[in-house]
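Extended Data, panel c. Modelled sequence:
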Amino acid sequence: MARSCFQINIGAFEDFIRKVQENPDAARYTFRTVTYWEGGAVSRTVARNFEIKADEPSDLGGTDSAPDPVELLLASLATCFAIGFVTQAARRGIDFRNLQVVTEGDIDLRGYLGLDPAVRPGYSRIRYTVKVDPDADPQVLEELRQLAHRLSPMIETVTHGVPVEGRIEVVDSRAATN
């Protein structure tokens, strides 16, 4: 089935840009997820009305029933980039029939396993390849790639970091069932 980037609702996107230009506070959002531990290494995250499962591969103690969190990070990067790429292409009247973003990340699990304090527990390198069947020349596609890369909230967050804060809130789940 042929697809087109023109299926994205550019009118709504452009309307939102105008809304933010008139009122910059309209651009401020707080996204929220709630993650529930379901036993073992399995968790279920609720984001708006959607659910995302996560698990670990069996050699890391999981049941391999869902992607693991580091794979979900790659998926977040790739989907954020893909949306930006498609949006920027459609804004310029550039269409394509197919788009894939192949994302890979290198990680040394000795950091996660606590075996070597000199090894960071996260990715040491992430890379992606855009595979596209376009109606545009390679130079224009590279310009789109650079723009989508620069404007991607996920790529920017991973590349430049953001403070992450945490706290504990003790709740008595037995009280809720009585």
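DSSP finds five helices and five strands in the chain. This feature is highlighted in the accompanying rendering.
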